[in-house]
Amino acid sequence: MKVIGLVAGFGWIASFTSPPGAQGDPRDFRHCRLSAVRTADNDIRLEQDYRSRPVPAPLPRAVADRIRAHVTAIARKNFTEAEWRETRMDCRRVFAPVFRLQGPDGLELYVAPRAFPLGNEVDYFLARDPRTGAVTQAPPLIFTKWASVYAKGDPLLGAPFVRMQPGSGGRRPTLTVEERTHNGNMYDAVVYRTFEIGKDMALKQVLAVEARAILMSDLKRYTERRATFLSPDRVRIDVTMHKGRKMVPAGSVLLTRRGAGEPFRIAERQVPEGLLTYCDSKRDDDFLRDGCDFYY
Question: 230 by DSSP, 3-state: which?
């Protein structure tokens, strides 16, 4: 997500560049120099965020190389050289300081903001094991445009935005990220996306829960869903809805899966289809696996 320091002038250098030759590919960001920051509460910051300011932190070469290579590959996949030249975007506009967080079980987590044209703003997530040097090779992303737009006074967002749990009882360590979603004039929501951290530092999404949501067509229809892990392979989601002046139970679902690294699916349902998520482009099981990946 965008860093407040870029707006408030905290003096951090997000990136700078020695530009490639005039004939070089402008989508190649492997020459960009990146920096990192850390926070006292081990969380990231939004563009408008009034918690303590981040301070400089070390950024391992292997992590910086993976970020640069990944962003280069995405830019080359989605833009021609001519299209990218028209954007006039360089290292300073594409990258912001990388957040370095202390992960579970002695691991490190890095959150790399990336901005492309037309509001295409995401955070990439990478885990690193300092004991082996292993780094996430295919960083998952969280779309961050709406978190930046609605950050100030947003009734749905709630810190911390990044939560991590150590492995226990046969369960791999996990990373849960709060994603702000918005679907045109349909609904606003916060989705908790949970990833398992593999031994090779691969981040595998296993569950998405639409934790808090408001239907735009009915502003009184505020709904919460709370996930409780009953075991490594069983999760219960309890649904409550706003009625009058209080929240009332609306039912629950039991989710199961075949084992570590596998997504959860509905095993028992006590709520109707469509109440587990208001993302109308997805059926419930598809949403639980992928989240709402329609980004307006």
Answer: strand
Q: How confident is the model over 242-252, as pLDDT tens digits? A: 887 888 999 99
Q: How far is CA 92 from CA 10, 84, 109, 186, in A?
A: 15, 15, 23, 34
Mean pLDDT of 119-144: 94
DSSP alpha helices (H): ranges in the chain?
Answer: 4-8, 61-78, 81-87, 91-94, 145-150, 284-290
**CA dihedral over 270, 272, 274, 278, signed as positive or negative:** negative
Whole-Å CA distances, 72 to 80, 84, 98, 236: 12, 12, 16, 40
User: In this structure, what token pair is assigned to residue 265?
Assistant: 């699916």
Asked if 51 and 159 touch (Cβ cutoff 8 Å), the reply is yes
On whether the CB atoms of residues 147 and 4 are closer than 8 A, the answer is no
pLDDT, tens digit (0-9, with 9 covering 90-100), for 209-251: 999 998 776 666 789 999 999 999 999 999 999 887 888 999 9
User: Residue 199: is it exposed, middle or buried by C-beta count within 10 angstroms (0-12/13-18/19+)?
Assistant: exposed
Alpha carbon of residue 119 to chain centroid: 16
pLDDT one-digit tens code per residue, 11-43: 344 444 445 544 689 999 999 999 999 999 999
Q: What is the pTM of this model?
A: 0.88
Amino acid letter at 91? C
* Helix ranges (DSSP H) in 95-227: 145-150
| Residue with tokens 């702000």, as numbered in its chain | 180
